[in-house]
Amino acid sequence: LTDGLRVSVEARYSPPHSSPETGRWFFLYTIRISNESDETLTLQARQWLIHDATGQVEEVRGEGVVGEQPELAPGEAFEYTQQHHGSRHRRTCRAHGNARVGYTLFYEPR
Questions:
Q1: What percent of the residues of the chain are helix, what percent strand, and what percent coil, each to the nearest 5?
Q2: Tens of pLDDT along 71-109?
Q3: Which one of 2, 40, 50, 63 has the minimum C-beta count within 10 Å?
Q4: Distance CA 27, CA 48 (A)
Q5: Is residue 47 scored above 60 in pLDDT?
Q6: What is the distance between the alpha carbons of residues 83 and 36, in angstroms, rounded to a whole number?
Q7: What's the CA gap between 31 and 11, in Å, rounded?
């Protein structure tokens, strides 16, 4: 919980979209952003830092999320799913034990 915003991330490996024989691994991340503050907030931008088991870090950043800049009143939440293609070593496909996601939100009170 930071400044009244709670962010939870669920990472999962997607075998049907992956191609291990060609070194392509596909992950889905479901992100839930909950406003637990007393103010209405507008999400302006986000930044992902994806760390894999080999120590490599990939940064993903942009305005809003999934093409939106959601406004969250106190008690409201916004959830979306993001995909990520990785061409890493096989051991990184275990998202629960070997992947770490850092998430930064940029927002402003309304």
A1: 15, 60, 30
A2: 889 999 999 888 877 655 443 433 333 334 444 555 556
A3: 2
A4: 14
A5: yes
A6: 26
A7: 9
Please give the structure tokens belonging to residue 8.
């939870």
Predicted structure pTM score:
0.72
Q: Which helix (H) or strand (E) holds 7?
A: strand 5-13
What one-letter code names the amino acid at 16? P
Q: What angle do CA 14, 6, 64 make, to 5 degrees?
A: 70
Rounded distance between C-alpha atoms, residue 108 and residue 39, angstroms: 10
List the beta bridge partners of residue 31. Answer: 9, 80
Report the C-alpha gap between 55 and 36 in whole angstroms. 33
